[in-house]
Amino acid sequence: MNSIQDKVVTRLQRLGRGKVVTPKDFLDLGSRDATDQALHRLVRSGTLVRVGRGLYHFPRVNGRLGITVPPDLDDMADALGRQVGSRVAPSGAVAANRLGLSTQIPAVPVYLTDGRSRKVRVGKLQIQLKHVAPKQLPPGSPVSTAVFQALQFLGRDAVDDHIVALLRDRLTPAQRHTLLRDARYASDWMATIARRIAASDQISDPGDPHG
Asked: Given phi > 0 = left and psi -120 to 50 = alpha, else beta, which region is 108?
């Protein structure tokens, strides 16, 4: 048991504080029973905080305030998806707010999933998972999906130079490169916005044979 528990702790440290995990994230380390026992022991020792059924938070502390930082909504939604093997992506309203493109804060954050619809309460937080057709969850990186969801929410006419600049500043060079690559899955107008966001990096569109 100690061996599995040590391996769980090592993986948690590699993932970094603030992450939300499920038993499924550790099943390669041992049996389900042994993994569950290791997680329960880590909860009792204070290493993990149980935030919901089968959900565990590896907390980080705000050094200035000395308080535990609540779980990140996106991490929580991702963990809920991994629990049942479903894909999850933020809805347009959530994505726009998370990316700093909108000040509107949804009362109940909605995440889209190809799994079943449900509402999940985690402490004081409530997340709604809304079933959508798989085609509404296009392939691509999570960051790219969030950007395209946010653009769709804002609408073509609302995406101006200011929005493009905000996204360019928000994304890392690697994320901008990935966004450009994933633009093949987006509509034409959003693909154009992706190219504008990545333009300052002077990188070629992987789909352009002349790039």
From this structure: beta
Q: Which long-range contacts (CB under 8 A, 24 or more apart) does 111-117 make?
A: 111/77, 111/80, 112/88, 112/136, 112/137, 112/149, 113/81, 113/86, 113/87, 113/88, 113/89, 113/137, 114/86, 114/87, 115/81, 115/84, 115/85, 115/86, 115/87, 115/88, 116/84, 116/86
Chain position carrying tokens 């992506």: 89
| Alpha carbon distance 59, 18 (integer Å) | 5
Give the span between the Cα atoms of 129 and 147, in whole angstroms.
19
Record the pTM: 0.80
Structure tokens at 17: 């504080």
What are the Cα distances from residue 7, in Å, to 44, 46, 90, 127?
Answer: 17, 17, 31, 30
pLDDT in tens, 10-66: 999 999 999 999 999 999 998 999 999 999 999 999 999 998 889 999 998 877 887
CA distance 88 to 74: 9
* Tens of pLDDT, residues 139-182: 789 999 999 999 999 999 999 999 999 999 999 999 999 999 99
Through-space distance between the first and last CA atoms of the chain, rounded to whole angstroms: 54
